Amino acid sequence: MADTPAGMAYTLGTGPDSGSTVGPQHCVTRVELSVCCGNLLDRDVTSKSDPFCVLFNEVDSSWVEIGRTETAVNNLNPVFGVKFKVDYHFEEVQKLKFALFDEDKCSSQLYEHDFLGEYICTLGVIVSNKKLHRPLTLANSKPAGKGTITDFFGKSDPYLEFHKQGDDGKWMLVHRTEVIKNTLDPVWKPFTVPLISLCNGDVDRSIKVLCYDYDNDGGHDFIGEFQTTVNKMSEIEFECINPKKQKKKKSYKNSGIIILKSCKVERDYTFLDYILGGCQIMFTVGIDFTASNGNPREASSLHFINPLGSNEYLSAILAVGQIIQDYDTDKMFPALGFGAQLPPDWKVSHEFAINFDPTNPFCQGVEGIAQAYSVCLPHIRFYGPTNFSPIITHVARFATQALQQETAAQYFTLLIITDGVISDMDETRHAIVQAAKLPMSIIIIGVGNADFAAMEFLDGDSSVLRSYTGEEAVRDIVQFVPFRDFRNAPKETLAKSVLAELPQQVTQYFKQRNLSPSNTASE
Which InterPro entries match (predicted)? Predict the structure, then answer.
């Protein structure tokens, strides 16, 4: 289970019409109240009043303070930044009092400050009006001059946190959702988290989910929480409980209902899983025999085989092939050439078998490719142009047949070794975009000292490759490496660089196609 991700999507349903009430439970949501005032009484002699607002709610016929705003210095028309957070109970009458005071002393005792007026209403009135503008009154119910108060009804900005319980009993944050702004009915995006991260792979280990109301100042307000396990996530609905409120208020039920819309536990197959499941890596080599490589009989040619029996083409073939051949049981690899004139009529070909057997272009292992290459050299004439698309299309035809596979059985890899600039760039781009839909990857190794900027363009690491028709490649399948960067390095270094992305490309394709390893298809 350690490599398994749990894909989860959560919805917090709140509000009287959100389906958040179940049986005798009551709907409880947190609302945010903003306050501003106008034309307040001026109680100061040498300056204007320094007002602040205090909010009370009625509990058992007594006024209990909920909170205070900041003090607005020398301001008779304050817009307070501090907002009041109040739990809204649809089924209850919640009486509120907004009282304004002029701060005179550094004291928390209200009687130490001058009273500027008050306004009493229910939370239901504020919620139903969304914006309430009313005159302030004094204790004797007379108008507080021309003073007014405006209440703005705001909604929460909720987000969720998922915590797992460690072996020491401490809770550790695993995942935090995005913040949904100004809503009582948030719907969070689905997310995926590895099971090993969520619960150490133990589907019965406790998971705590906490809901907060986001504040810009970092003082996020706790709404409620619940505990569950992966095994219990099929319960769909969970009461969001604030323990402090549960202790203080007998009538408290919950702070909302969190609804789990879907929860799936899926096996996350790795490249090794596919290989162990029997997936074969079908390897094909494409070799550039264009005239720009030079006469293979001369030492300056990139195809000249030195006294040690090697050149950059052979080094590239051996470095990559010796790794890939281990993943093909029969080790029979097609080896193709392009850009040369062939006997007996000396027509140019951009897709020919280097063993000169078009019905059976296979070579036995990497050594067989190297041998066929060496034998081929004196029997062809280097020509041009440098066209990639025919060989890419050739391999794509076989990869297309593999689209019918019901399990991850075959994946095709084409190694192209070239010395120069592509002549058929538009056709090559189009061929690669089409091949990206297939179980296929392309490795390009540039030999010599040419400008390989076009090759970098085909390697879609920095931007998405597009066909000349405008169609985008559904995935990046090209890896380009210039051989000159590895001339003085061990051949293993070259192989590591060019093959680094292949495992990811293989797993990405099979996952997109929802294909399992062959030996697990019936599980």
Answer: C2_dom (IPR000008), C2_domain_sf (IPR035892), C2B_Copine (IPR037768), Copine (IPR045052), Copine_C (IPR010734), VWF_A (IPR002035), vWFA_dom_sf (IPR036465)
Distance CA 118, CA 147 (A): 9
Mean pLDDT for 498-506 is 92
Identify the CA nearest to 506 among candidates 328, 327, 271. 271
Q: pLDDT class for 21, splitting at 50, 70, 90?
A: very low
Cβ-in-10-Å burial (0-12, 13-18, 19+) of 361 comes to: buried
Its pTM stands at: 0.58
Please tell me the predicted confidence (pLDDT) of residue 15: 32
pLDDT at 471: 95
* pLDDT at residue 7, rounded to an integer: 35
The rounded percent of the chain whose pLDDT value lies above 90 is: 61
Residue 19 phi, psi (nearest 5): 80, 25
For the chain, give every residue range classified as CATH 3.40.50.410. Answer: 271-513
Give kind and range of the element (H or E) at residue 101.
Answer: strand 95-102
pLDDT tens profile 455-466: 877 876 668 899
Helix ranges (DSSP H) in 377-461? 389-401, 425-435, 453-458
Average pLDDT of span 103-110: 87
Mutual angle of helices 312-324 and 491-499, in 10-degree steps: 60
Angle at 48 between CA 81 and CA 43, to 5 degrees: 105
Whether the Cβ atoms of residue 432 and residue 416 lie closer than 8 Å to each other: no
User: What's 29-128's CATH class?
Assistant: mainly beta
* Residues 274/510, Cβ–Cβ less than 8 Å: yes
Contacts of 200 (CB under 8 A, 6+ apart): 164
In one-letter notation, the amino acid at residue 194 is P
| pLDDT greater than 50 at residue 202 | yes
In CATH, 158-259 is 2.10.260: no
Beta-strand runs (E) in 359-419 = 362-364, 381-382, 410-418
Q: How many residues does the chain have?
A: 523
Q: How far apart are CA 324 and CA 281, in angstroms?
A: 7
Residue extent(s) of CATH 2.60.40.150 domains in the chain? 29-128
- Helices in 264-349 by DSSP H: which ranges? 271-276, 312-324
Describe the strand order of the beta sheet including 143-155 as a list of residue ranges: 62-68, 51-59, 95-102, 114-122, 131-137, 143-155, 28-38, 84-89
The CATH fold of domain 271-513: Rossmann fold (3.40.50)
Which amino acid does the sequence have at 246? Q
